[in-house]
Amino acid sequence: MSVQVTGVGDTILFQANCKHFYVSGLDLNVLASEVLKNFDPKNRISNNKTTYGPEHEDDYFEFGEHTKQLIDCISAVADSMQMEIVNRIWSQVHHPFESCNLHDHIGLADMGFVFYVKVPTGAGRLYFDFGSAGVSTVEPIENMLVVFPAYLKHGVTKNLSNDLRISIAGDLRKKL
Fold first, then answer.
1. What is the distance between the alpha carbons of residues 153 and 135, in angstroms, rounded to a whole number?
2. CATH number of the structural domain spanning residue 101
3. 97-114 pLDDT, tens per residue?
């Protein structure tokens, strides 16, 4: 009798769903002004190149009327997923050649989100690093909201444009 091997099927061990939404009705120029109103790159935490982590690339800003409208939209999306916004929302303003370090939000949230306010051509991509399984990327566009599991390691590639890339990000958690 000879030894035989017969395939019986596959088991999916890992699946990550990244949701994309398009938000319309916001004036992105006004939203960008709200983010940039008190922005000073010299005071941005990311200027400390000796410290690692995403919190050192973020900028907290005073919410204007358009930011509040965006947060209402994100809250509605979160609600449809039985989630709610965690009380931390920040912006990321990347100048040319800046990027966002690889990180996750484990222990901070169940899902992360990013909304793209300003995305010039060549401004970089959102990427998810699955280690030896490879990397997946999302090409951001203005007005796009991306929601993804907080455990996914993610970052943003270098801004290779000659202009600012502006996004607003935050975390979601399951409703209690």
1. 10
2. 2.60.120.620
3. 888 888 888 888 999 999
